[in-house]
UniProtKB/TrEMBL annotation:
The keyword Hydrolase does not apply. It comes from Actinoplanes lobatus. The keyword Acetylation does not apply. GO terms for molecular function: serine-type endopeptidase inhibitor activity. Belongs to the protease inhibitor I16 (SSI) family. InterPro entries: Prot_inh_I16_SSI (IPR000691), Prot_inh_SSI_I16_CS (IPR020054), Subtilisin_inhibitor (IPR023549), Subtilisin_inhibitor-like_sf (IPR036819). PROSITE patterns: SSI. Its main location: secreted. Residues 38-110 form the Subtilisin inhibitor domain. Homodimer. This is Subtilisin inhibitor domain-containing protein.
Length: 124
């Protein structure tokens, strides 16, 4: 069983986060923050400055993004326990953060692992 868990962890970690936050040409500001977050067939839009869109917790999601300067690769994983069930899910963020282009995706072993790693951002 431990061997299986190690193999699954290796497969889940092999994908690694893919992130790009590139400089924009215009002035930077929170009003220039418009992101689309997706996983499985679920899609939400998030704006920050002021917080809005159809994300169920836009204020908390924007606060999380401010803490990591709009770069989801900087998210710190939580400490929840997840079952060793391999049902891969890919989380994606794309749009602009303070005028900079953002494109990020990460594949997790299951939705519990995604929720643990991304917190409020993908709680929809």
């Amino acid at each position: 069983m431990i061997g299986l868990a190690a193999a699954l962890a290796a497969v889940a970690g092999a994908a690694g986060p893919a992130a790009a936050v590139t400089g924009g040409s215009g002035p930077r500001g929170a009003a220039d923050s418009k992101l689309t977050l997706t996983y499985q067939a679920k899609v939400v839009h998030l704006t920050c400055g002021p917080a809005g869109g159809d994300h169920p917790r836009p204020v908390q999601a924007c606060a999380t993004l401010r803490d990591i300067d709009g770069n989801p690769a900087r998210l710190k994983s939580g400490d929840a326990f997840c079952m060793l069930l391999y049902a891969p899910v890919t989380a994606r963020v794309q749009g602009t953060w303070e005028g900079r282009s953002v494109r990020w995706q990460q594949t997790y072993g299951n939705t519990c692992e995604m929720a643990r790693a991304t917190g409020v951002l993908f709680q929809f």
